[in-house]
Amino acid sequence: MNGVDEGRMNREQDAKRVLKEYFGFTAFRPGQEELIDAILEGRDVMAVMPTGAGKSLCYQIPAVLMEGITVVISPLISLMKDQVNALVEAGIEAAYLNSSLDGAAYAETLRGLAQGQYRLLYIAPERLLRDDLLAQIGDIPIPLVVVDEAHCVSQWGHDFRPSYLQIAAFIRSLHDRPRVAACTATATTKVKEDILRLLDLKEPLSLTTGFDRQNLYFGVERPSHKSEALLEYLAKHRGQSGIVYCSTRKRVEEVAELLCSHGFAAARYHAGLEDRERHGNQDDFIYDRKTIMVATNAFGMGIDKSNVSFVIHYNMPKNIESYYQEAGRAGRDGEKAECILYYSGQDVRINTFLITNGADAEERDDELVQHNLELLKQMTFYATGSECLRSRLLAYFGESSPHYCGNCSACNTLYEEIDATVEARKILSCVYRLKERNRAFGKTMIIDILRGSKSEKIRSQGFDTLSTWGIMADTTAQRIRAILDRLLDQGYLVMDEGEYPVVHLAPRSGEILTEKKSFVVKLPRPQAEKPEKVSARSGSGAGLPIGLGSADGQGGAFSVTKIIEAQDARPVDEDLLEKLKALRRDLARKGGVPSYVVFSDAALRDMCVKLPENRDAFLAVSGVGEVKQKKYGDVFTALIREYLADRERD
Ligand code: ADP
Ligand code: MG
Hints:
12% strand; Arc Repressor Mutant, subunit A; binds adenosine-5'-diphosphate
């Protein structure tokens, strides 16, 4: 074996050892091993991986293995404490420097730094140059600087932070240039280019892992009353932890109040709250004192709470990137979780308004406004289309995928392909006849005319004399709307998004109206019943709707199988799981840390499967490293032994 291979093998062994010893995991996730190896080899890296994919380990493991101290630049000081707590729990010395520390704690941390006590130091970007970190660290080498949430350096990203622009200068000021690792979940080309350039990465290993999160279910709903839909959903998911995102502070207030008045343990979060309340509410959520967080998009970056079971968007975000990042906060521990978007046309109008007239629109150039409008269009497309939602998301991130995932609302609603040419022609004619009278209206009015409404509004304007009045009297409004939406989607009609959005003919309208082109679309079956969930999970694929997935060629069939596996959560004894959770809660409370810092839900589930009765068996549980085994092994195995003995007796 030559020296290069040998070096690599040693590095791999070291990395594996740390993975088990400290973090309690036996296998790397996609991309982790390559990134760790590149860092250990001395290279810069750029890791583009979805939220929850496990970016932290990619730099924490090298930090354990390398001489000196790894500096982690992270945007949210309020969360550094939790990240450091989690490392300390795993047996890795770490500290943070930010304004929340009082004088004594600050001095204490500096002392520890000077003595080389820590493997990792978390720091906010604002402090890098100001605090003259170098003078504090003295001779201790800095082998690695990590820039977490690296997209914050880019104007094109969604969380631009001017202070991130100082990072390159900080790195240049270091005596020996460290390796630089940039981590982000944002994958667009513009943002990636900015990261490379503005952080001055040197020939980095740039690794983008698949963006698919198989444990997440994606859904889009159009409830006529969002509040009722939400209450109904939460009632079915009582006790589970979740986030409800709203687009404005006002809406956050309303929804939080609504939930509390219905007896749900909900907290609120937005930038308009006093710091104290905001932090307090965030802690209530992280420490599971409140199960539901109602928040604007100000909440969440850097939140590593792993047991979030659902993320509901009460309003549609401005773009798919933000949506995927926010939704991706569900199911970080790999457990099944749901991401649901409540769509309404109103959301599109509000977002358009914010982009074109919003607070920061004036300082921004037209190009950026246009760019953002284009992104909004794609988001709207996601919400209103009829194709597999997962494939739409992945397509946005440049990944191809089969058009059937079996785990989204589009795939779970049975669609039928219908020839809607006649209906389409009727709808287009109606718009055409209105145009002849120099009038244009929104969807609802068009539908009313087609269905022959005799309302005052219609009669007073004489629309009941239009030749298209009542020509679709026997079609449901819902169905006309669905066809109208498809005509808009496919550019046979256009929507003028003014104050009162109105529908116009498009250059393409003629293809159907006069050239007799047919219009075939996929529409939900009338009164479609949801297929039994079992069908996609049965493992055989036999329950899949005909012609989907398996007929899709190799790629399709393969992916469907993979998804079935991912969903095939092992059944566990819920009684025992509850007991383990209660024990975890007590220990977390005593230790002053969030529950998930003690053990993730995934680890507790693995305990239910492996039923470890002694320390050695306990070490085999996923998520149990040596320090946690020593700290918690006895109490957890005692509980499990007692539980099993009780069960014997019954
Ligand atoms: P990201 O920063 O990419 O959003 P994190 O680093 O916070 O994600 O990791 C998300 C979750 O995945 C954490 O709970 C972490 O413990 C878990 N995790 C990371 N790597 C592994 C692995 N190799 N095996 C099992 N769990 C892992
Ligand atoms: Mg992270």
